[in-house]
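Our platform keeps sequence and structure together, in a single record for each protein. Such a record has a labelled line for the sequence and another for the backbone structure tokens. This encoding replaces a full spatial description with a residue-level series of whole-number codes. Below, we set out a record of this kind in full and without editing:
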Amino acid sequence: MTKDEMNEQLLQQVNSLTATVDSLNATIAAQTQLIAQLNQTIQELKEQLNKNSKNSSKPPSSDGLKKPAPKSLRKSSGKKVGAQNGHPGTNLAVTTAPDETIKHMPSACEGCPHYKMCKGTACISEKRHVIDAVVTVNVTEHQVLEIPICMLHGGTRKGEFPSDVKASVQYGENLQALSVALNTVGAVSIKRTHEILSGVFNIPIATGTISNMVKRCADGLCDIVEKIKQKMQASALGHFDETGTRVDKKLWWVHNASNCDYTYLDISPKRGFKGMEQCGVLTEFHGIAMHDCWASYWNYPEVTHAVCCAHLLRELTGITENHPEQKWASAFIDLLLEMKKVKDKAVAKGNESLSYYYSHKFDKQYDELIEQARKENPLPETTEKKRGRKKKGKILALVERLANYKASVCLFIKNFEVPFDNNQAERDIRMIKVKTKVSGCFRTEEGARDYLKIMSYIGTAHKQGYNAYEAIKNAISGNPDFIFG
């Protein structure tokens, strides 16, 4: 073999080995990328498993049987546990004269020949009271009287039944109000309401009758609920939220608009902007809207937006638990809680705004933590050329939200009328989840709307100082406007 042939053979071997190395390098690069993607997926799944209602925006109903341990973000106040000195308290007390009195003589005196004489001279040593409810059924018979010949005008004179007595036999307002209250406020199903009332009163009240009672009550509230809606549209501060429920085996969305005076609930098959447009409060609202960071709320530029800091605290808590290397998150939690503490102290002193010192301090700390968070979470560098924005990830997305919506996040320390959180809306909408868990779903859209009308009315009545039973009874009697004085 000549020297040239040997060189040619060696060159071919080198080329073959080079191609093999290139192929292996490409395989290693592909596997490295796949491993990185799988690690990212594993991390996301682990984070998803660790999420609950305490460290994310997931509702408590999604926690299932494995309830997370309470993790309060509040710091110890140093006060003793329980009611503080001066708390009025509530206790069981007898406020009226007893309906029945039973005297108890010593058991050893029974059979004594002087029993009656001693009983007459015995004095009261101690008193105890038993308060119980005695259920009675009161039947009122209405009789229309007829005068055959009127002595003054002549002819026949006949009385008339009251306007609310329309049938030969009907249920009274108290029983109707109790039926409606059990089915709505009590979240008791129609069937179980029938069983309870039939057992307590021994009245064969049918399930269809109970359903008609709820329907008539809701129909009588159309005008008052529309008035509540108008009050919310014109209010200076509103709390907004939405939650899902089942209507005829489909997912619908209940939209809430409320404040400390009014509660308005409506339902739509759509979530987000379309549902908000259908419900019609935000379309006419021009005050301060407290809500979470759901993107649809930002479609209303004429509204002053306030972000719920409780939602942010839960998200930040989730980051500190799943990514302990993110030091900025725990620092941001401390900042939000300090801002709330300083504001609460200022309100207690009767101040209407923070001092320049605290305003400047919080503003500076906020910007510094955003900058720190961006340094800890830079955008990933990719060699692939793809159209559109680079994927940020949930942590960096939260950082950008905190940066972009800084004015809305900090509005509660700029305007003392704005609360720290959106708990008002969450309290007003919570009964929807209870009703869904107990009854499963609403069979029809009409039934869902009837329930929300009654709950809007009851929620508003409660905020005006009236209990649910009293409000429902007035609605059944045709006087729902009483809640507005």
About this structure: The chain has a mean pLDDT of 86. The two ends are 115 Å apart (CA to CA).
